[in-house]
Design brief:
The chain is an all-beta fold.
Length: 127
């Protein structure tokens, strides 16, 4: 069983930066794709970014492209989301997720492809 724990959320002003971290348990982490999703109040959970198991392939939602960067450190079982130039519309609970093993070179973008989820961390951007 894989456990994911996010950290790094908080209250910031528009234009500021935040870095989210996700600590993962499990021995096959490097073969699992990892992603970040977010859910604003009253809305569905949306895809934000994904990285392949190797970390060499990434994919972003259009709404964050050029502002957010996903990365991972497989030696530490960590996934990160660097968020720059934050906007009020980025306000949401951010969730880290990983797939099962075998996603070395894939970057899934739908909820159903992810097997494990963290508890979420709140990001609030004031105008």
């Amino acid at each position: 069983q894989v456990q994911l724990v996010e950290s790094g959320g908080g209250l910031v002003q528009a234009g500021d930066s935040l870095r989210l971290s996700c600590a993962a348990s499990g021995r096959t982490f490097s073969s699992c794709a990892a992603g970040w999703f977010r859910q604003a109040p009253g809305k569905e959970r949306d895809f934000v970014a994904a990285t392949s198991g190797t970390g060499g392939i990434t994919y972003y939602a259009d709404s964050v492209k050029g502002r957010f960067t996903i990365s991972r450190d497989n030696a530490k079982n960590m996934v990160y989301l660097q968020m720059n130039s934050l906007k009020p519309e980025d306000t949401a609970v951010y969730y880290c997720a990983t797939t099962r093993a075998g996603y070395y070179y894939l970057t899934p973008r739908t909820n159903l492809e992810y097997a494990y989820w963290g508890q979420g961390t709140q990001v609030t951007v004031s105008s």
